Structures are given as structure tokens and as C-alpha cells.
């Protein structure tokens, strides 16, 4: 028999969990359905374990920077504490009991299973049927996008999930894709002694970001001993005797003990029953309006909306969806000042539009760039000081529409630039601010001084 409830949340990753807990906390009867682990990708296989790995890799890199700066250190990398932290502190050995109890403790009803829509306000899960009076929130996230490379579907490649569960670094690793996942993990494993080759199809690393950043990362990763192949297409994959062999389009072969496929993600819409509510199940992403509504009584938050695969986007959208479900007024989602940080060393932070994206929108653009090593703090910092600040100004309006901050703490330096883009602070005002000496963010002042038409 069908059970009545106020709201059903399908998918209890960061987005869905936030919605479900907030609505249950507001006194609604909420059913939360999760096929795998409550918390989703971020705590178990993505943001948190990868950042624990990166913290460890950065410690090794800092120790290796001692010569010429502060003495000598014997560095003997050991991945065991990293794997243990991921198992014990990050993921509770991939057990979500605490998260489930946090939700049920707020009065939520939890169902473990794969849910699907069976008409407006109607959800089937784990052999049960729920009728949602207020509506349904879809938050099913995304999964790795596997490219159609000949032989790839026949071999035991890694995705981010296998990498996060690794107990030791592989002897060698081929990384397909020079985006955020590929580069963060390439650098970590290399710092633990893995021989890493990154193969990126586009002409540069992090191709969606400023080209200066792709060049910077190629140099830094190359100097750390990582082989970086850009503009490289893999046309075939084979696996035999614990070795992966990739054939590049020029005929060259590259080999490695493991292969990490990190070529992007795609929203999980298949099998959700979208056709039962008149929506296209084959769409690339769930189309939502500014209040995160996909249809009457149907909301969507997180990766499946295609507005950027980031935890901060999922949680931002979740707050708006909560207000919308509760019928409370509030502003529409606004992605103009969306920040993203790739946690390589140097960290690459960016907000808003890269120069090429601003030009594609027809803006009259001025850009200004400053090199971190040439700034006072960068010069003082010395070892590991690589980085740059690049600003993108809409010259008509005299405001920044985008900025990049790469360097030590580049993701933190980004914050001031994100405020400037979000609040549309006039560039002239930014020029007449006082920037503390000698901070990394003082390079912003140099970049402002360099703003000129390209
Ligand atoms: C390696 C890696 C590192 C990352 N690092 C960062 C980072 O540093 N910072 C950052 O902001 N972002 C990072 N991300 C992205 C971040 O993990 C995602 O953006 C975030 O997890 C999205 O949350 P979500 O709730 O939309 O989806 P998910 O976390 O994917 O959760 C969706 C949930 O829905 C469940 N589900 C799916 N279908 C159904 C169904 N039919 N019924 C029931 N349940 C279902 C799934 O099991 C899953 O638990 C990283 C991603 C990766 C891969
Ligand atoms: N620090 C963070 O916030 C963080 C970290 C990791 C992941 N993420 C999120 O997860 C998402 C997925 O990360 P990702 O790195 O998998 O995707 P991505 O889209 O960032 O990068 C994928 C890369 O693979 C390349 N590529 C695609 N097909 C290829 C092929 N056949 N051969 C070689 N290269 C190919 C693309 O050109 C691109 O550079 C990101 O979009 C990001 O939003 C965020």
C-alpha cells in the first residue's frame, strides 16, 4: 500500500542529505532514499579522502624543499597512514551509520534502495511506494564518464573510487584526463613514488581554465617527474600480466601498472523514471529553474543539474531548494561568481569567467596578470612559489567578471576576488584599496595595475 509523506528525497549525497535534514528539521515528514552511502561521493570517494591524500603529499613536498632553505630531511614516504586516515577518519570504513542516524534523529524516514519516479509525486523504492504531498527532490549526483576508447570496457581500469580505496601507491599509473581529478591524484601518487603519466586530449591541462594555468601546471608537474602528454588521443587499451598498454593515435605505446580514468562526469538521470513526469530521461542534465524546480512539485539539486560538479554548488542549491519547498521567498540561484579550486600544488583557484569564456560572450575584455614569484611574498617564499594572478575585466562596466589565483594557498587568495566578482566592485575601487604586505594576495594589486586591452 502506498505511504503518504510530505517530501521524498532521492539520493542522499551532499545535496540530498542537506535538503532532507533541513526539511526534517523544519518539521516535515521526509523520506530519504539512498542506493549506496548517505553522504554520497564527497566524503567516501571524492573531496574528503582526496584532500587527505593531498595534505599528505604536500607535507612530503615541503620536506623535500628543505635543502637550501632550512637544512636537510630524510623523506621516506609511507602511504599507510594516509590509507588509514581515509578508512578510519574520513569514511568510517565506508560505513554511513552515523549519517543515517543523523537524519533519522531529526525525524526523517530512511530507505536504503534505488528509487524511481512513477508519476508526479509518486516514488517507488525498495518495494515500497510513497506519495509525496509537497513534492520530490532529485539529488542523484553523477558518475564517471567513460570515453568510447577501443578496449577500455574490457580492462580493470580505476575510477576515483578505486584510487580512494588504494592501500598503497601503484608502482606506475597512467592517468587519462588532465582535469581536476586526474591532476590532483597524479601529483599525490607521484609524491609517494609512483611513476605517473597524464594523458590529456586537449592542448593543455585544465582546459576549461586560463591557458597560463595549464602551462604552469605542465611545468610544475613535469619538474616533479610526472610525464604530461597534452593533445594526445588514446585509440586503444589493452591489459595483460598486470600491465595496461595504451596506444596513442600516432602509434606510440605507453604502459603502466594501473590506469585511472578521469575524463569527466555525467549526471545520473538514467532509470530515474523522468518520463513518468513528462521530462526527457536522455537529457544531459536535469533542467531546473532559479528556484531549482524541474516541474511542479519536483526539484533537483547537485551534480545532476549540470551547474558544476562541486560540493559547494550542491549545498548552495540545496539551501535554495529547501526555501522553495517550504514556500519561503528568496533569490534565484546565481552562478556568476562560482568559485572552483583544483587542489594541486600550486592550488588553482578561479571564479567567474576565464578570458576565453568572457570573449565568447562578446564582452569587451581587459586582462591583467601578475606572477607570484615576482611579488614580495613569492620571492620570500622561494621554493614552491610558482603561481599567478589573472584578472578578467568587463571594460564596459569596469568590473571583474573572472579571476584566477594560482599559487601557494591559491584557493584562499581567491576569496577576495570572488567577493569582487560577486559584488561587482568597481575595478577603480579595488585599485585604491590597501593590500597587506607581504601577503600572497598583494599580487592582486600588481594584476590590477597590469589590466589592459588584449
Ligand atoms: C575525486 C573527486 C574529488 C572531488 N573533490 C571535490 C572538492 O574538493 N570540492 C568540491 O566542491 N567538489 C569535489 N568533487 C565533486 C563532489 O564530490 C560532487 O560535486 C558532490 O559529491 C555532488 O553531490 P551530489 O549530492 O550532487 O551527488 P553525490 O555526492 O554523487 O550523491 C548522489 C547520491 O545519490 C545516490 N543515488 C543515485 N541514484 C539513486 C537512486 N535512483 N535512488 C537512490 N539513490 C540514488 C547515489 O548513491 C549517491 O549517494 C570531487 C569529485 C571527485 C570525483
Ligand atoms: N577540487 C575540486 O573541486 C574537484 C576535484 C576533483 C573533481 N572535481 C569535480 O569533478 C568533476 C570531474 O572531474 P574530472 O577531472 O573527471 O573532469 P574534468 O571535466 O575536470 O576533466 C576531464 C579532463 O579529461 C579530458 N578528457 C576527456 N576525454 C578524454 C580522453 N578520451 N582522453 C584524454 N583526455 C580526455 C578533458 O579534456 C578534461 O581535461 C570536475 O568537473 C570537478 O567539478 C572537483
UniProtKB/TrEMBL annotation:
Which cofactor(s) does the record list? Answer: FAD
Print the keywords alphabetically. FAD, Flavoprotein
Q: Which InterPro entries does the record cross-reference, listed alphabetically?
A: FAD/NAD-bd_sf, FAD/NAD-binding_dom, FAD/NAD-linked_Rdtase_dimer_sf, Pyr_nuc-diS_OxRdtase, Pyr_nucl-diS_OxRdtase_dimer
| Organism encoding this protein | Streptomyces halobius
Oxidoreductase keyword on record: no
Report the residue ranges that make up the FAD/NAD(P)-binding domain in this protein.
Answer: 6-318
Source taxon at top rank? Bacteria
Tell me the Pfam families matching this sequence: Pyr_redox_2 (PF07992), Pyr_redox_dim (PF02852)
Positions of the Pyridine nucleotide-disulphide oxidoreductase dimerisation domain: 339-447
Task: Tell me the protein family, please.
Answer: Belongs to the class-I pyridine nucleotide-disulfide oxidoreductase family.
Give yes or no: UniProt keyword Glycoprotein. no
- Put simply, this protein is called NAD(P)/FAD-dependent oxidoreductase
Amino acid at each position: 500500500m502506498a505511504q503518504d509523506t510530505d517530501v521524498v528525497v532521492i539520493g542522499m549525497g551532499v545535496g540530498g542529505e542537506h535538503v532532507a535534514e533541513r526539511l526534517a528539521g523544519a518539521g516535515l515528514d521526509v523520506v530519504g532514499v539512498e542506493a549506496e552511502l548517505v553522504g554520497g561521493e564527497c566524503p567516501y570517494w571524492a573531496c574528503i579522502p582526496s584532500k587527505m591524500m593531498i595534505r599528505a603529499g604536500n607535507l612530503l613536498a615541503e620536506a623535500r624543499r628543505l635543502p637550501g632553505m632550512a637544512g636537510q630531511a630524510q623523506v621516506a614516504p609511507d602511504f599507510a597512514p594516509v590509507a588509514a586516515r581515509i578508512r578510519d577518519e574520513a569514511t568510517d570504513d565506508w560505513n554511513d551509520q552515523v549519517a543515517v542516524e543523523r537524519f533519522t534523529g531529526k525525524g526523517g524516514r530512511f530507505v536504503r534502495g534505488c528509487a524511481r519516479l512513477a508519476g508526479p509525486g509518486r516514488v517507488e523504492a525498495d518495494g515500497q511506494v510513497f506519495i509525496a504531498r509537497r513534492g520530490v527532490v532529485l539529488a542523484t549526483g553523477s558518475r564517471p564518464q567513460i570515453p568510447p576508447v577501443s578496449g577500455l570496457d574490457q580492462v580493470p581500469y580505476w575510477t576515483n573510487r578505486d584510487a580512494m580505496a588504494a592501500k598503497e601507491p601503484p608502482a606506475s599509473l597512467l592517468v587519462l584526463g588532465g582535469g581536476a581529478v586526474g591532476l590532483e591524484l597524479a601529483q599525490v601518487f607521484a609524491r609517494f613514488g609512483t611513476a605517473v603519466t597524464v594523458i590529456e586530449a586537449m592542448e593543455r591541462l585544465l582546459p576549461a581554465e586560463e591557458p597560463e594555468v595549464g602551462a604552469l601546471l605542465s611545468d610544475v608537474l613535469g619538474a616533479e617527474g610526472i610525464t604530461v602528454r597534452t593533445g594526445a588521443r588514446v585509440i586503444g587499451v589493452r591489459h595483460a600480466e598486470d600491465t595496461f598498454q595504451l596506444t596513442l593515435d600516432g602509434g606510440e605505446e605507453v604502459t603502466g601498472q594501473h590506469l585511472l580514468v578521469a575524463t569527466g562526469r555525467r549526471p545520473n538521470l538514467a532509470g530515474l523514471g523522468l518520463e513518468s513526469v513528462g521530462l526527457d530521461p536522455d537529457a544531459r542534465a536535469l533542467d531546473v529553474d532559479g528556484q531549482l524546480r524541474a516541474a511542479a512539485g519536483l526539484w533537483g539539486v547537485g551534480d545532476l543539474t549540470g551547474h558544476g560538479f562541486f560540493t559547494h554548488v550542491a549545498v548552495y542549491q540545496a539551501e535554495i531548494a529547501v526555501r522553495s519547498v517550504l514556500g519561503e521567498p528568496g533569490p534565484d540561484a546565481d552562478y556568476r561568481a562560482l568559485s572552483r579550486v583544483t587542489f594541486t600544488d600550486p592550488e588553482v583557484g578561479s571564479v567567474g569567467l576565464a578570458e576565453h569564456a568572457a570573449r565568447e560572450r562578446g564582452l569587451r575584455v581587459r586582462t591583467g596578470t601578475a606572477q607570484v614569484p615576482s611579488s614580495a611574498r613569492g620571492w620570500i617564499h622561494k621554493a614552491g612559489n610558482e603561481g599567478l594572478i589573472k584578472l578578467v575585466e568587463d571594460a564596459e562596466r569596469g568590473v571583474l567578471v573572472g579571476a584566477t589565483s594560482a599559487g601557494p594557498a591559491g584557493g584562499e587568495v581567491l576569496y577576495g576576488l570572488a567577493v569582487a566578482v560577486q559584488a561587482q566592485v568597481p575595478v577603480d575601487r579595488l585599485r585604491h584599496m590597501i593590500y597587506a604586505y607581504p601577503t600572497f594576495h598583494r599580487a592582486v594589486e600588481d594584476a590590477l595595475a597590469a589590466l589592459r586591452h588584449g
